[in-house]
């Protein structure tokens, strides 16, 4: 295509940019996209969705190839995104769904800060992990841990976790033959796909993930004014009953500084809550 006739991204309208952004997002972070994805998201006719895909291919001819097996476009090895992504933006979309106006600039409506924000994952690593989760694929990665240093690791990821202090990926660890959590930013390099997962390596076999734990929390008995904590946490009669996945129980209790002692400590210290046995 002649460079003078090649379309330019900055010349496209805002609605067109939104559709192109959504198309690329699915390619980059989910690993495939097709006309029906655009039709469902934007209420387009098939012909309009086809034109959007054709336009994206003109803008980035080396980014996508059609996979006749799954009847979808998939990213090529030479994929280079047209748009810039922030980890917060990507994780919000993956966690809560796609909002409007994602391709435009982001401005806060009111002043809001989060000083305890978790270190955000590196975008290219996050994209490889989310594609593997969405497509139920195993990954071979170079992973660095405080116990073993850097080594090649085979995993079958199935979910993202925000522990409150860092982002992790939950999956089957082929080196230990059990499900575990991996810190995303400790993945030094994604080496590629590994062997196809077996049934016992999939989310459905992760007992701690599928099991729900019931928790009963109360203001720490050593507090001078336990009613303040009861008000803060919206307790009823001084009790907060919650449920969470068993795999996430320790993260939640740690983040909330819950006293886990069978008998509450004599001094509250940093504790505001006590877990009733």
TrEMBL record:
<feature type="domain" description="WYL">
    <location>
        <begin position="125"/>
        <end position="189"/>
    </location>
</feature>
<protein>
    <submittedName>
        <fullName>Uncharacterized protein</fullName>
    </submittedName>
</protein>
<dbReference type="InterPro" id="IPR026881">
    <property type="entry name" value="WYL_dom"/>
</dbReference>
<dbReference type="Pfam" id="PF26109">
    <property type="entry name" value="WHD_BrxR"/>
</dbReference>
<feature type="domain" description="DNA-binding transcriptional repressor CapW winged helix-turn-helix">
    <location>
        <begin position="16"/>
        <end position="85"/>
    </location>
</feature>
<dbReference type="Pfam" id="PF26107">
    <property type="entry name" value="BrxR_CTD"/>
</dbReference>
<dbReference type="InterPro" id="IPR059020">
    <property type="entry name" value="CapW_CTD"/>
</dbReference>
<dbReference type="InterPro" id="IPR059019">
    <property type="entry name" value="WHD_CapW"/>
</dbReference>
<feature type="domain" description="DNA-binding transcriptional repressor CapW C-terminal dimerisation">
    <location>
        <begin position="214"/>
        <end position="276"/>
    </location>
</feature>
<dbReference type="InterPro" id="IPR016634">
    <property type="entry name" value="CapW-like"/>
</dbReference>
<dbReference type="Pfam" id="PF13280">
    <property type="entry name" value="WYL"/>
</dbReference>
